[in-house]
Amino acid sequence: MENRTVYFDNNATTPLHPGVKEALIEGLEIFGNPSSMHAFGREARERIEDAREKVASFIGADADEILFVGSGSEANNTVLSLLHCDSTRCSCALSGRSGLVTTVIEHPCVLNTARDLGRKSHEVTYLSVDKHGRIDLEELRRAVTDKVGMVSIMMANNEIGTIQDIKAAARIAHEGGALFHTDAVQSVGKIPVDVRDLDVDFLTISAHKLYGPKGIGALYVKKGAPYCPLILGGHQEGGRRAGTENSLGIIGMGKAMELRAIEMEEEEKRLLELKNILKAGIAEAIPDALFMGHPEHCLPGTLSVSFAGAEGEAILLYLDLVGIAVSTGSACASGSLDPSHVIMATGVPVENAHGSVRISLGRENTLEDVHYMLHHLPIIIDRIRTMSTAYRRK
Amino acid sequence: MAKWTYSDKVKDHFMNPRNILREDNEADFHGIGQTGNIKCGDEMIVYIKVDPADLTITECKWRTYGCASAIASTSILSEMVIGMTLDQAYAITAKDILKELGGLPDNKVHCSVLGDKALRAAIDDYYGKNGMEDRIKTQSAKIVCECMQVTDEDIEHAVLEGVRSFSELQDMTKIGAGCGECHENAQAVMSGYIQKHFGL
């Protein structure tokens, strides 16, 4: 089979959409400080507000509910930090409620912030997940006591692709008197997201996960929701996030959202089809493959799988040698001693967790890419199993 | 394409691993040693054939469950030991393997520490099977971490290398990375050696 380069790591980051690239090149000319009153500044301001409209309309929000931030991590940190805000400049006191409810499978930017809150004597509850990575809504209901100020639950998991019932979770949080935040970094641009329908108070988006540039994200803050800036300084973003706006990044993000609005629906179907072909092909060609994540409530392009007796980093690197990029939850790839906390939380045996591989498809992937993968993966798994202490052919 | 994190030698041994035991003919080998535990992420088995006349290793095969570093380090070890006497082979350390590989990234060093242990276990197995129990050295060392086969001697060695905290010890030896039950005992053993050697 002819060699190709196949990028199957779209959950890590996506290639720039050619339309975004064009917008960025054109945007390079716009250098004015958006806070300046002269023509140069006004032009930059206009472009930023145009992008804000696009981001807002894509998720069903009003423009003034969107603020641009440096990353999804920054957005998540900002929201969780509301719980220990002691500023006199804002009105974000959460009615004396300082507790946080989150899940064991969140992104490290939420988990590490939650851990810090725990050290600052905030009560933090971590919801467990079932074998498909879904939380138990009843467990959530019990966790939302009158001490809880915020519930933060990711919409779709970056590793296994499992999608939570955010609408139901937000309702439970609100019934218990808590605010609701969702990290939707992996969801916005892949599946329909409407903030009014979901009735969330805060929602996090990152541009580079939807074919936009890196270093730019957005936070949706529902009108009237308590808020306090994490980064203090000037009056940018309506005083909600100081620092001169990343106008080029914002222009790119706006364009990426505009293009998502046109392309997402079709692509969702196409990626799901490709994933199903890939999944069936793997199941047929490779014995003892274990698929993870929810069989239905899962991102269309995310396939998480592990192979008994084959370690993840070895799989990743052998695939790299034939031009295929994937990612792994293997401890050996991360340099830590434990495999992925997400995979472990779903109760997958640790032997499997070390061998987990995440294949995440995106708009540039084709059926030929899937066939290329299906040609090489069985050979590679067989090769690793041949030298494995842990696998014997049956 | 950008360069690999690994050296060309590591890459070569990863792409073309030498001396894998492909068939189930373990019985042909004179000594077999196993270290690690798949639950902890790495497991290695080393098989050796020995010329009884001069106690040199004539063949060395292996199997491993592990990452690229683990595969490459076991592969290169299997080449290094052929022709060595059992005494010479016994003296090989993880550092020697690392040197031969042209180094590994810091966070990967722990992946190479099992090969030499598996080899020593294979040599001891040979001694045991051939009435040379007096030459077995690992018997004197006490295993502290069952999952990763870390002994008190390994901990002493680590302390002498400058390790002072449990996390440093874990970085170096992977101790406690499996079930974690050894944590308290390992801490006590480490403190004992720090006290013994440095009076701290």
Automatic annotation (TrEMBL), chain A:
Catalytic activity reported:
(sulfur carrier)-H + L-cysteine = (sulfur carrier)-SH + L-alanine
Give an example GO molecular function. metal ion binding
What PROSITE patterns does the record point to? AA_TRANSFER_CLASS_5
Q: Which InterPro entries match?
A: Aminotrans_V_dom, Aminotrans_V_PyrdxlP_BS, Cysteine_dSase, PyrdxlP-dep_Trfase, PyrdxlP-dep_Trfase_major, PyrdxlP-dep_Trfase_small
Name the coenzymes or cofactors required: pyridoxal 5'-phosphate
Question: What is a single Pfam family found in this protein's UniProt entry?
Answer: Aminotran_5
Q: Which UniProt keywords apply?
A: Iron, Iron-sulfur, Metal-binding, Pyridoxal phosphate, Transferase
The function of this protein is:
Catalyzes the removal of elemental sulfur atoms from cysteine to produce alanine. Seems to participate in the biosynthesis of the nitrogenase metalloclusters by providing the inorganic sulfur required for the Fe-S core formation.
Gene3D superfamilies in the cross-refs: 1.10.260.50, Aspartate Aminotransferase, domain 1, Type I PLP-dependent aspartate aminotransferase-like (Major domain)
Q: Which family does it belong to?
A: Belongs to the class-V pyridoxal-phosphate-dependent aminotransferase family. NifS/IscS subfamily.
Q: List the EC numbers from the record.
A: 2.8.1.7
> Per the UniProt entry, what species is this protein from, by scientific name?
Desulfomicrobium norvegicum (strain DSM 1741 / NCIMB 8310) (Desulfovibrio baculatus (strain Norway 4))
Q: Which residues form the Aminotransferase class V domain?
A: 6-372
Q: What is this protein called?
A: cysteine desulfurase
TrEMBL record, chain B:
Q: Which Pfam families match?
A: Fer2_BFD (PF04324), NifU_N (PF01592)
Q: Where is the NIF system FeS cluster assembly NifU N-terminal domain?
A: 5-131
Keywords, sorted A to Z: Iron, Iron-sulfur, Metal-binding
Keyword Metal-binding assigned: yes
What InterPro entries does this protein's entry cite?
BFD-like_2Fe2S-bd_dom, BFD-like_2Fe2S-bd_dom_sf, NIF_FeS_clus_asmbl_NifU_N
UniProt domain BFD-like [2Fe-2S]-binding: residue ranges: 143-190
The cross-references to CDD domains, in alphabetical order and at most eight, read:
IscU_like
Q: Which PANTHER family match?
A: IRON-SULFUR CLUSTER ASSEMBLY ENZYME NIFU HOMOLOG
Protein's UniProt name: Nitrogen fixation NifU-like protein/NifU-like protein
Naturally occurring in which organism (per UniProt): Desulfomicrobium macestii
